[in-house]
Amino acid sequence: MTATVLQAKGITKEFPGVLANDHVDFDLREGEIHALLGENGAGKSTLMNIIYGLYNQDEGEIIINGQPSNITTPNDAIEYGIGMVHQHFMLIPVFRVTENIMLGAETLHRDKNRTPPFWKRGIFEWVRQLDFLERRAVTKKVSELSHQYGLDIDPDAIVGDLPVGVQQRVEIIKALYRNAKILILDEPSAVLTPQEVEDLFRIMRELTSRGVSIIFITHKLKEVLAVADRITVMRAGKVVDTVIPEESNEQKLASLMVGRDVLLKVDKKTAHPKGDVLTVSDLRVVDHRKLDVVRGVSFNVRRGEILGIAGVQGNGQTELIEALTGLRPTRSGKVILAGKDVTGKPPRVVTEAGLGHIPEDRQRHGLVLSYPITDNIMLCTYYLPPFAKGFTIQQKAVDEVTRQLIKAFDVRTPSPFVITSKLSGGNQQKVIVARELSRPVNLLIANQPTRGLDVGSIEYIHKEIIAMRDRGVGVLLVSAELDEILSLSDRIAVIYRGEIVTTVDAKDATREQLGLWMAGAKPESA
Amino acid sequence: MDWRRFSFIALIIATLFGIVVSIGHEQTSPAIIITSMLATTIAVATPLTLGALSGVYCERAGVVNIGIEGMMLSGAFFGWLAAIYMNSVFNFSTMPSLLIGVLAAMLAGGAFGWLHALLSVTFKVDQIIGGTVINMLAIGITGFLNRQLFFEKGSIFGGQVPHAPGVLPRIQLPILADIPVVGRVFDQQPIAITAILLVFLTHYILFFTRWGLRTRAVGEHPRAADTVGINVRKVRYANVIIGGLMAGLGGAYFTLESVPSFEPLMTNGRGFIALAAMIFGNWTPIGSWAAALIFGAAQAMQINLQFFREMIPAQWAFLQQSYIVGLAPYILTMIILTGIIGKNVPPAADGLPYEK
Question: Does residue B352 fall inside a structural domain?
Answer without folding.
Answer: no
